[in-house]
Task: inverse folding
């Protein structure tokens, strides 16, 4: 064993050489940091597929037909996930976590498919899922020139309005064109508005559930294991598209390959990444680091705690799903914030901005350098108004439904004297809340009051009014929330309706304690939100200008940020170092059972009964594997394919180190976690006895 000093020295050198150095481990000179070649990611579009890059990187030269067949085999699963065709008979593969809600919608009285899973042994048993659809991208056309010219110049709001009108006009025109008729048309924005495309989707509305494992297999390890690796999840489900009452016949699908993956294999992910912000400048990222992300974490943590405490008594499944969603968001945003607080990563972003500006000068476009200055000035302006616009946002999640309703009533009352037409619009938003869980409403209000007390201070007029008792002494946020809920009449539907009927004067004159708080918050929110909106509109146009400039300087060699539009990205099967050891490229079912026994079968590492006595053959089968692919939310359900367009896996998550991928892609640390195709077949064979499905997927 090395002596401590030598160990530390060796570790420091190793971290530097392998690119794992982080600000907390080593010091560095920010001025000498260089941007990585793929800091902007690898989310290539099918509008400009990276043929030359694939040839140079992998010695693989896919032709137009390869990209077309790949595109047509890929699907968008409803409005939130990705999927793909995996058989000639319209079989669709996506994640279990994309299908949970669909599975519940397909279950019958007395069933709980989340607990039992589902397998249709025959075609007749496949169940139609109400309102579920999948979209296949069949047409694409660049509309950039028309949109940019049509937007013209002038006030920011007017330009954006003209753009929206143009989008509708273009969709109406193309909806009448041959080849586009009957398609779902969508305008796609690339490079923050630097480029625009029109996409035409063939929508399939008859989608039926075929196979879905129990939720405990699809989400094994729960939130503890979320965004981690090694991982053990059977996060898959299968559906089938029907047309005219029969399974869809298609030649566009990814054939299953269960032979396994090897270290170094090139892998391509086809899916719809939701949103990244990699073109953001350093001042914008610092704004997120200092204000936006900490605020979101504070809100989500306090609300998740309130929901968890309440649901410990209520045992309500809908609340449990809300908690899971909040916990997932907390982990994701927390990981992003960790990246934003890493000076090394921010230094890389600054290095990219410097290089971008240098390349702009080299092309004699120096007049465009003012874009960076204007963005920084707008961000500085947004900093002034963020707190009040956020704390006083009339959102039920942030402040509770009753206080939010009270504030909207006051906004309506204040608008009535100044802008009657606007007041009538606001009046349409006056939906009287039906508070189902009073204790939860009180907990949300208490959390809000604690947040404003910390953020604005005890001397703030709103804080004083909210917390003071009759003698002027400050209550605790919890005490104040209990008092306010006890004394408001807004839970009396008759009282609320009577106030709305009587109109603005009655609302403005009411002494209801929540209406009084809403009266204080409303003008502060409107002023701050108005300033933020103006600044954000200017930023939207500046970001579009920056996007156009990026495309002008680099072309399609730098892919655009994610916009929940179809992308192809490349990576390789590769291990990485973590927690002082090395991650295996793939895990096995044996590892899942080790975790089950190590935690004594306790939730969230418990298993359904039929999984507790596995055959020995199952234990050695691969389960999950890792690659260096570039994914983000929305990629869930994306097929992992090889160069032969064969499905080798199904993307479902990333590691913790991938979470800063919202603003920078760091392939040395980032890993995509996928379900191995062999894992799916093994489960179908040994546990579910799903022979019909196995035969369809692997042709046996």
Result:
């Amino acid at each position: 064993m090395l002596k401590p000093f030598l160990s530390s020295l060796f570790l420091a050198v190793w971290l530097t050489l392998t690119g794992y150095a982080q600000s907390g481990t080593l010091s560095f000179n920010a001025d000498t940091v260089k941007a990585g070649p793929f800091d902007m990611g690898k989310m290539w579009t099918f509008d400009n597929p990276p043929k030359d890059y694939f040839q140079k990187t992998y010695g693989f030269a896919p032709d137009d037909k390869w990209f077309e067949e790949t595109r047509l085999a890929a699907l968008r699963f409803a409005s939130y996930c990705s999927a793909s065709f995996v058989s000639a008979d319209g079989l669709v593969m996506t994640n279990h976590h994309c299908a949970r809600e669909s599975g519940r919608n397909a279950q019958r009285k007395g069933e709980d498919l989340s607990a039992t899973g589902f397998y249709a042994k025959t075609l007749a048993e496949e169940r139609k899922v109400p309102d579920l659809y999948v979209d296949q991208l069949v047409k694409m056309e660049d509309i950039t020139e028309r949109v940019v010219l049509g937007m013209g110049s002038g006030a920011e709001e007017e330009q954006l309005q003209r753009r929206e009108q143009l989008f509708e006009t273009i969709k109406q025109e193309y909806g009448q064109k041959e080849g586009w008729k009957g398609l779902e048309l969508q305008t796609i924005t690339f490079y923050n508005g630097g480029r625009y495309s029109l996409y035409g989707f063939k929508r399939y509305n008859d989608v039926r559930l075929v196979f879905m494992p129990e939720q405990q297999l699809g989400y094994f390890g729960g939130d503890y294991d979320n965004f981690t690796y090694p991982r053990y999840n059977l996060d898959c489900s299968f559906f089938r598209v029907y047309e005219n009452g029969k399974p869809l016949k298609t030649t566009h699908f990814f054939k299953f390959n269960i032979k396994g993956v090897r270290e170094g294999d090139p892998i391509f992910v086809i899916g719809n990444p939701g949103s990244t912000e990699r073109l953001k400048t350093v001042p914008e990222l610092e704004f997120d680091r200092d204000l936006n992300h900490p605020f979101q974490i504070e809100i989500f943590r306090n609300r998740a705690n309130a929901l968890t405490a309440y649901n410990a008594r209520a045992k309500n499944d809908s609340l449990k799903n809300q908690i899971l969603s909040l916990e997932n968001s907390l982990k994701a945003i927390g990981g992003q914030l960790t990246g934003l607080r890493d000076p090394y990563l921010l230094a890389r972003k600054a290095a990219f901005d410097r290089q971008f500006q240098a390349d702009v000068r080299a092309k004699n476009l120096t007049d465009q350098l003012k874009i960076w200055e204007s963005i920084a000035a707008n961000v500085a302006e947004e900093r002034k108004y963020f707190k009040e616009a956020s704390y006083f946002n009339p959102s039920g999640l942030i402040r509770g439904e009753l206080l939010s309703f009270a504030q909207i009533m006051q906004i309506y009352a204040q608008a009535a004297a100044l802008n009657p037409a606007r007041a009538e619009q606001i009046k349409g938003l006056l939906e009287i809340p039906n508070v189902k869980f009073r204790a939860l409403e009180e907990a949300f209000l208490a959390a809000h009051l604690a947040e404003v007390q910390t953020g604005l201070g005890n001397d703030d007029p709103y804080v004083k009014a909210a917390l003071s008792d009759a003698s002027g002494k400050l209550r605790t946020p919890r005490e104040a929330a209990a008092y306010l809920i006890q004394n408001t009449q807004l839970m009396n539907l008759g009282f609320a309706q009577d106030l709305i009927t009587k109109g603005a004067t009655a609302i403005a004159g009411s002494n209801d304690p929540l209406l009084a708080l809403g009266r204080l918050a409303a003008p502060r929110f409107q002023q701050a939100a108005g300033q933020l909106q103006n600044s954000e509109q200017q930023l939207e146009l500046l970001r579009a200008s920056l996007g156009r400039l990026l495309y002008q300087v680099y072309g399609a060699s730098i892919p655009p940020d994610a916009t929940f539009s179809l992308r192809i990205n490349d990576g390789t099967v590769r291990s990485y170092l973590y927690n002082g050891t090395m991650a295996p490229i793939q895990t096995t079912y044996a590892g899942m059972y080790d975790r089950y026994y190590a935690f004594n079968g306790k939730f969230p590492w418990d298993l359904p009964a039929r999984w507790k006595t596995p055959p020995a053959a199952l234990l050695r089968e691969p389960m999950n594997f890792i690659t260096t692919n570039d994914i983000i939310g929305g990629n869930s359900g994306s097929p992992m394919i090889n160069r032969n367009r064969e499905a080798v896996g199904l993307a479902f998550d990333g590691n913790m180190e991938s979470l800063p991928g919202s603003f920078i892609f760091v392939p040395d640390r980032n890993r995509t976690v996928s379900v191995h195709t062999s894992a799916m077949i093994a489960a179908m064979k040994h546990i579910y006895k799903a022979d019909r499905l196995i035969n369809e997927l692997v042709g046996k």
About this structure: The first strand starts at residue 44 and ends at 45. The chain has a mean pLDDT of 92. The domain at 44-133+205-277+561-698 is CATH 2.40.10.120 (Thrombin, subunit H). The CA atoms of residues 94 and 195 lie 30 Å apart.
